[in-house]
Input
Amino acid sequence: MLEADLDRRLLLPLVTRYHRLTNMSTQAMTVDHRLTDDPSLSPTERIRRRFAVAWSEMGAAWGVAPSTAAVQGYLLAHGGPVTDAELREALGLSHRAIRLALASCEEWGIVRRAEEPRRSGRRGPAGRAWVALDDHWEWFHRVIESRKKREGDPVIAILEQCLIEARSASDREEAELLQTRLQSLLGFVRQFDHALSAVIRADTESLRKLFAVLERQDQETLDRLLGTLSEIPEDELDDLVRTLSRMPSGSVRRLMRLAGQPTVARLIGAHPRRR
Output
């Protein structure tokens, strides 16, 4: 009983921190769906609002407050600049909800303030206005980085703490089995986290180019590539990656052109690329 209480006290700070970081819906205000059916709206505005509602629902599935996702969705569809008052009207959210949602969007780095204030009506002073971050790879990059900090890092901390406790548990046989399972899970999470960190460090142009190339490949080509990689021993793949990473881009391009020559391709047992 005492050990169970101790375990709970040790894990509570980690679990509480994980919940606080990942569950952003504690102050979520849902978007009013009825606003999309207003007959006085232009067809374009109704589409923008429907998109914002759908984006908010997808955001909620990711653990993002619906109001935060709705603001980003509306700005993605609109472009901006859009004032706080216009966002409140479009999304049916209160002044406080919009303020919290915009603060959250700024924290995520997915919207930015317009350089010049903008007046949304005929009277009153000009208010702050917002625009979407139109570089989709950039805001995606920022979201992934934030999610790693909010979710990936706490999970690793929890697993590491559980492993420490399992090594000192008194029921040795059961504890050793637990250690094996936790160590396997921690290894997987660390591998994924390491790969994700590389994506986060990469500049958006590199990511854009990589996914553009993948998009141009048909399923058969991608399946064949992955099948080939699976047949190469891990240590040889490791050497290949390290070697390529040290080569200048010009040398890699010359190597690819050389491998594409019919004579060389036949020599190494490869199929020359069809022109």
